[in-house]
Amino acid sequence: MKHVFSTALVAASLAVAAPAFADPVQINAVTFAPRQASITQPFAQFVEEVNEMFAGEIEITWRGGPEVMPPFGQPEGVRNGAMGMTYTSPSYYQGLVPTSGTMNLSFMNYEEIAATDYHERMTELHAEQDLAFVGEIPATQLNFQIYMSGEITSLADLEGQRIRVFPALLPLVEALGAEPIVLPMPEIYTAMERGAIDGFMQGPNGGQAEQFEGIVSTVVQPGVYRAGFPVLMNMDLWNEMSPDLQERFTTFLREDFAPRMDFIWTEDITTERAAQEAAGFEFFVLEGEDAAAYEALAMDAAWATVAETAGEEIAAELRGMLDRQ
Questions:
Q1: Vertex 310, ends 85 and 133: CA angle to 5°?
Q2: Domain ends where: 217, 241, 264?
Q3: Number of folded domains in the chain?
Q4: What is the spatial distance between Cα 81 and Cα 86, in angstroms, rounded to a whole number?
Q5: Per the domain annotation, does 17 fall within a domain?
Q6: Same domain as 305, residue 180
Q7: 5: in domain
C-alpha cells in the first residue's frame, strides 16, 4: 500500500537554529514493523521532518525494524541504551510500563485525548521507568478487528479458538472464551498457514486481502479500541537535549505532527475493504445493542487487567481521561 502524506509548513517559532558550536543529538531509531509496512510510513515522515526542522540540533537515523531488534525487545533496548529511539506498539512493553497499553483503550480521537492530561501523565509514568515518552503518532481509525480462518455466525463460535493478539487485546479474547496467542506481526501469516492459530486481531488497513486470501474466511466487526504508536527515547540521550530543545521537540510531535496523522487512513481502509470483499472474505457484523455490548466487554475486560497490574487508582485516573463522558 502507498500513502501520499502532505508536507506541512512548520511554525517558524519551532525552528530555532542551534548554536553553531553545538553538535546535534544523534538518535538511532528502530521500529516494531518493517520499513515497507504501511504502519511505519508516518514514522518515516516524522524522521524526515524532524531532521529538516531541527537540523543542527537533532539527527535521527532509522536503522530498521524487527530485523535489527526483536519488536518486543525494542523498548527495553531503548531503556538500556542499545538503541536511542523506538516507534512501537503501546502494549509491547507493558512489562516495563504497566499502563502503556492504555493508549489503545479508547474510542476517542487524538484531539480529544490531547485535550486531557493523558499525555502528560504518561510522560510521568514512563519517566518512573527511565524511559522518555516523546509522544504518540496516532491512528484512531485503525481499530482492531478479528480475522478468522473459519465461518463465524455468532460470538459463541469464537469459544476455544486460538487468536493471535498483542497484549492489550488479550483480556478481550479471554472474555470471549477464546485462547489468546501473543505473537509479533511478522509471524501471523506463518502461524495461520500452519494452523497454529485460528485467527488474529489487526487493524483494517494491513493488506490482509493480498496476504491472507484463501486463509481468512470471516472478519468480525465492529473493530474495537484505537491505535496509537508511542515514540520513546533513551533517558540519557533525552537528557543530552537542553530543556528548551526537549520542549520544542515534544511540542512538534504532540501539537503539530500527531494531529496531522490521525485521520490519514480513510483511503487505505476503503481500498482494503473492497479488496477483502473481492478476495471472498465474509463479514460478521454486530449491530445495535449487540455491538454496544461487545464494545463494553472489550473496554471492561482490558481496564480490569490494567487495574490488576498498575493498581485500581491509576487505572481509574487514566480511564477517566480516555472514556467519553
A1: 20
A2: 264
A3: 2
A4: 11
A5: no
A6: yes
A7: no
Spans in the chain with pLDDT lower than 70: 1-21, 325
249 and 175 housed in the same domain: no
Other Cβ atoms within 10 Å of 296 Cβ, number: 11
Rounded Cα gap, residues 235 and 123, in angstroms: 12
Using alpha carbons only, give the angle 51, 55, 59 rounded to the nearest 5 degrees.
50
- What are the tens digits of pLDDT across the range 242-267? 999 999 999 999 999 999 999 999 99
Residue 65: φ, ψ to 5°: -120, -130
Q: Are residues 188 and 214 in the same domain?
A: yes
The pLDDT of residue 3 is: 44
Closest Cα partner for 74 from 58, 102, 96?
Answer: 96
Q: What pLDDT sits at residue 18?
A: 41
Tens of pLDDT, residues 203-215: 998 789 999 999 9
Candidates 263, 291, 54, 255; CA nearest to 138 is 263
Question: What is the per-residue pLDDT for 142?
Answer: 93
Residues 209 and 87 in one domain: no
> Before 222, cis peptide (omega within 30)?
yes
Distance CA 257, CA 259 (A): 6
Domain that holds residue 192: 144-225+267-322
288: left (phi over 0), alpha (psi -120 to 50) or beta: left
Residue 325 pLDDT: 60
Is 132 a domain residue?
yes
Rounded Cα–Cα distance for residues 296 and 30 (Å): 35
Nearest Cα residue to 126 out of 88, 155, 153: 88
212-217's contacts with Cβ under 8 Å and 24+ in sequence apart are 212/147, 212/279, 213/279, 213/280, 214/279, 214/280, 215/149, 215/189, 216/147, 216/148, 216/149, 216/192, 216/281, 217/148, 217/149, 217/150, 217/151, 217/152, 217/280, 217/281, 217/282
Residue 20 placed within a domain: no
CATH assignment at residue 66: 3.40.190.170
